[in-house]
Specification:
Layout lengths: L14 H22 L3 H28 L5 H19 L7 H22 L29
Helix pairs in contact: 1-2, 1-4, 2-3, 3-4
Bound molecules: fe (ii) ion.
Fe (ii) ion binds next to helix 3 and helix 4.
């Protein structure tokens, strides 16, 4: 069962970044399924995929922010590094084979991903000529992020 459901209100109005966010959601949902089935070994295989893809995605996002001289790039990059370090730290405990640890990881990942995508990534100005103009680059998200029931 998917826990993170993509919603168009999460769009950052940048097709490349949106497509990467959708992939991140898919990887996360695979992890969530494995956590629900208590598949510890398989869960950590997918965590490697998440680690690898988030690094790839963060670099793409940071490259875009640098290209447009985004003024909050340093703080934004620090958030990315925090996420990478936290996931690394939690996965180093995989030998404990604890289902509680999987649940802790799932909670951290879902909360962080939603808050970051909706709260921070949407502040990054879209490329010129993107699909729509946002009412405000600094305002609150159009919708509160939702986890599926
Ligand atoms: Fe980001």
């Amino acid at each position: 069962m998917s826990l993170l459901i993509w919603n168009d209100s999460y769009s950052v109005e940048n097709d490349l970044i949106d497509s990467q966010h959708k992939i991140l959601f898919e990887i996360f949902n695979t992890l969530h399924d494995k956590c629900c089935r208590s598949e510890v070994d398989s869960f950590y295989d997918s965590i490697l995929q998440l680690q690898s893809y988030t690094r790839y995605h963060f670099r793409a996002e940071e490259q875009y922010m640098a290209q447009i001289n985004y003024k909050k790039i340093i703080m934004h990059k620090l958030e990315h590094r925090y996420f990478e370090n936290r996931v690394d730290e939690l996965t180093q405990k995989k030998n404990e084979r604890s289902v509680d640890l999987l649940r802790l990881l799932i909670t951290f990942l879902s909360n962080w991903l939603l808050q970051h995508v909706v709260g921070e990534d949407r502040k990054i100005p879209p490329p010129p000529g993107s699909r729509q103009v946002r009412p405000s680059d600094s305002g609150p998200p159009r919708e509160t992020p939702q986890l599926s029931p």
